[in-house]
Amino acid sequence: MIDLYTAATPNGHKISIVLEELALPYTMHVLDLAAGQQKEAWFLSINPNGRIPAIIDRAADNFAVFESGAILIYLAEKTGQLLPADAQGRSRVLQWLMFQMGGIGPMMGQANVFYRYFPEKLQPAIDRYHGECSRLFRVLDSHLQHHEYLAGEYSIADIANWAWVRTHNWSGVAVDGMPYLQRWLALVGGRPAVRKGITMPPSQLDRHASPDKAEQFAQEARKMLETGQSRGHA
Question: Are residues 115 and 162 in the same domain?
């Protein structure tokens, strides 16, 4: 049994998706990031960085794992699925996983801050992160022109990147003119385990919500920024 400590963020949904794909039994514990639960002592004993997601593998002497990429690798290795065993196949998956961890996630995260959450509209910062997100999306689109999935067969690399790229509208970044990226978004998003995983837990906001609802959600996020609690997911 896996205990999953999470919230409705792209990084949180990476882990619920992979758990559904691997058909591993798990208990979900949803943390209230706005209330700062991720900074409480009990959770810091699981993840010293005070961010979600994190897991405890109850079947492996209560082994704790934090950082979403590390969790994906751990669960894939534990089950022998979604990560090839051969050196080159494994490397291909890890390359695209690192692409998300070092590029897609941080750049989209910063786009969210300056486009949605920051109280002042700093256009140079918005342009900077929108431009970098678009560049990274074009990298994906170009690669996917010749590949059905990112690293050969469907893998944790697809899960990691998809969980973020699917939220491009919220970040203010279009995928128009990127047909191969759009095809892949629909392909991965059509998997039953993926559809279930993104409801575990359900997002507080439909990413295509009305402007009024979007602004209400953004105001709550601004409060988290002001109190330094927004960095509660990894």
Answer: yes
Question: Is 11 a domain residue?
Answer: yes
CATH number of domain containing 192: 1.20.1050.10
**Rounded Cα–Cα distance for residues 152 and 18 (Å):** 17
Single pTM value for the model: 0.91
Find the distance separating the first CA and the last CA of the chain, reported in whole Å: 22
39 and 66, same domain (yes or no)? yes
Report if residue 57 sits inside a domain.
Answer: yes
The answer to whether 15 and 209 have CB atoms below 8 angstroms apart is no
| Residues whose CB is less than 8 angstroms from the CB of residue 211 and which lie 6 or more positions away in sequence, other chains included | none
What is the CATH classification number for the domain harbouring 32? 3.40.30.10
Type of residue at 37: Q
Q: What is the pLDDT of residues 45-59, one digit of tens each?
A: 999 999 999 999 999
Q: Are 144 and 180 in contact (CB under 8 A)?
A: yes
φ/ψ of residue 52, rounded to 5? -95, 155
3-state class of 147 per DSSP?
coil
Q: Does residue 136 carry a pLDDT above 70? A: yes
CB neighbour burial string for 171-210, b if at least 16 within 10 angstroms, e if fewer? bbbebeebebbeebbebbeebebbeebbebbebebeeebe
- Domains: count for the chain: 2
> Are residues 72 and 14 in contact, defined by beta-carbon separation less than 8 angstroms?
yes
CA–CA separation, 108 and 106 (whole Å): 6
Is 207 domain-assigned? no
